[in-house]
Task: structure prediction
Amino acid sequence: MDSMRAAVLDGYGQPLRLIRLPVPVPGPGELLIRLEASGVCHSDVHVWKGESVASPPPDPYILGHEGVGVVAGCGPGVTDWQVGDRAGAAWLHDTCGVCELCISQNENFCPNQRAHGFHVPGTFAEYVIAKAAFTVRLPAGGAAGLAPLMCAGLTAFGALERAQVQHGETCAVFGCGGLGLYAVQLAARRGARVVAVDSDPAKLLLAQRFGAQATVLAGLDLAQAWQDDHRAHATINFAPTTRTWPAMLAATRPLGRIVAAAMVSEPVPLVQEWLTWTGVTITGTSVGSRAQMRDLMALHAAAPLQAAVAEIRLEDASDALAALAEGRAQGRYCITF
Ligand SMILES: [Zn+2]
Ligand SMILES: [Zn+2]
Result:
């Protein structure tokens, strides 16, 4: 166990290079995790293309932040983990631990966070170093079903928490890709009536199977055609476009909540007067906290969340990134080792 296979980034937008690297050694408070699987997330695409880059970037430059595996080594001072424990390495590698956000258990908003595959080496490799305090214990179940929960599932869970979706409420989910389909299931489990929106009828069929009570095929007149009985207390956007906003406003009841989960870098159309009249709260969300991750693992242990996962090999990671970049992906890609 002295070398490992890893896919490293040599040039933005270029195929990742498969090389052998020394297996890293865990430092104080750190775990060495032998990965069973790593999801491929859309944020990896932004890093791969150089659109979203940390300064300095990880060294070695290994992407990936949806890692699940088994503890293979414990650094000095680690007392609550043992070799052989199943462990998950998610987006957060660590945070500052002392700011008001960290102290209030909102560490996923800490401005001094470091992320796997962004600031420190990630999970597109056979081993990853994680901080024990930021590593999640995994329930039983297949690695390919667990890996996408580390970011996609947690982001959906965090969005529902931000939206404070309650039993009996109507929750509109815009965008039924990987994250949206997790949100549909989580909202249905909370007892909400879920209205799922997408431009792809196949995704709406999945949404229906995963618990959506109503589905709406997104077209040009989505805002005008929004039915009154579909108006939502909570509207969550996972579609990475500004085009959903007129419909999201039409879909949301007065005093409702809109949560922006998708990464959209352009300004969105919004008339302030509409906010004045409706009293709607608009907020964002960023992955999730460690406490939310533990809650998500408990939910998955009780009844596994479903996802369309395509298992791939490490050497196929570049193809998966390209497919995600071009919008060709059906479901989530997951590298299995
Ligand atoms: Zn902090
Ligand atoms: Zn992610």
Observations:
- The first strand starts at residue 3 and ends at 8.
